[in-house]
Amino acid sequence: MALTRIFPEQLTSSLSQRLASLYYLVGQDPLLLAESRDLIIKTAAAQGFDERLEVTADNSTDWIDLQERCQSRGLFFNKQVISLNLPENLTALLQKNLAELMSVLNEDVLLIVQFAKFSKLLEKSEWHKRAINYEPSIVQVNCQTPTAEQLPRWLANRAKAMGLTIEQDALQLLCYSYENNLLALKQALELLALLHSDKKLTFARVQKVVEQSSTFTPFQWIDAVLEGKEARARRILTGLQAEDVQPVVLLRTLQRELMTLLELSKPAQGLPAIDAPLPAAQLREGFDRLKVWQNRRNFYVLTFQRLTYRKLYRIIQQLADLERTAKLDFGADIWDRLADISVKIAQGK
User: Fold this and answer.
1) What is the mean pLDDT of residues 288-294?
2) How far apart are CA 136 and CA 121, in angstroms?
3) Residue 292 shares a structural domain with residue 315
4) 13 CB burial (10 A radius; 0-12, 13-18, 19+)
5) For residues 218-239, average pLDDT
6) Average of per-residue pLDDT across 54-58
């Protein structure tokens, strides 16, 4: 008796082999949760589960009614799918109600339980033990948003399933542009598939779709700054201001990039002169170690050519001063000062 742990892209194959009576959807990614739930429900409907109920567990949940519904055995419902969404904090009372619910499940009910994280503590809980007694082969679908390292594999599998071929640099551009936003990534793929009947995704085609997005992202601003494209950086910054992006978000994003620059510029031995260009000899090893996207590496190379340690330290200090100002004086013209820092990095001043 054990959990069968799979990823969402494996769910279709799993369902074709067997429809379990109980599924755990574990994670918080909206796209993966919705698609996994819908696929289970669609498969169940084809096997006679023609009723559906979705319950979000909270203080107002009528657990008695839910138990009676499970025990109805076709008196009022045919076979039914119940989707139960649990809060992040599973109280003792909630777990008691879950245990009682697991005790009344039967073959006319397919239960989908959605929760954020399945810990060792939950694995030892009474409700999970009763769930295992009911369905010895519970299927647990990992619906966590892929990490930066996992995203290329997820995207490659997604593109393949859609019949798309994708160049490596195009894949990396999509991963970078839509990291942590699978819904937007899905929509971008669907748009690209509609635009190109040959189903080939080149870097140029992907870049055009990314550029034509209805909104700018902080990442696009960062790339323009690192690439030395002053005018483009200003244009994106103006767009972000119009979209009411919080300046602190941009400050933190830029700070992370500057810390990456510092980490990449650590000399193998000794310290170069403070006014010497940033040392680029160890960049390739640094890129690999820090897992910098391939399509972004040239941006860092260009930045290294423009900056010295003195200039980099000065910019980091100005950014820290600006963050303090942003927190203390909401009336200060933060956007103009952000633009000035953008120019200094882009021009290497």
Assistant:
1) 81
2) 19
3) yes
4) exposed
5) 87
6) 90
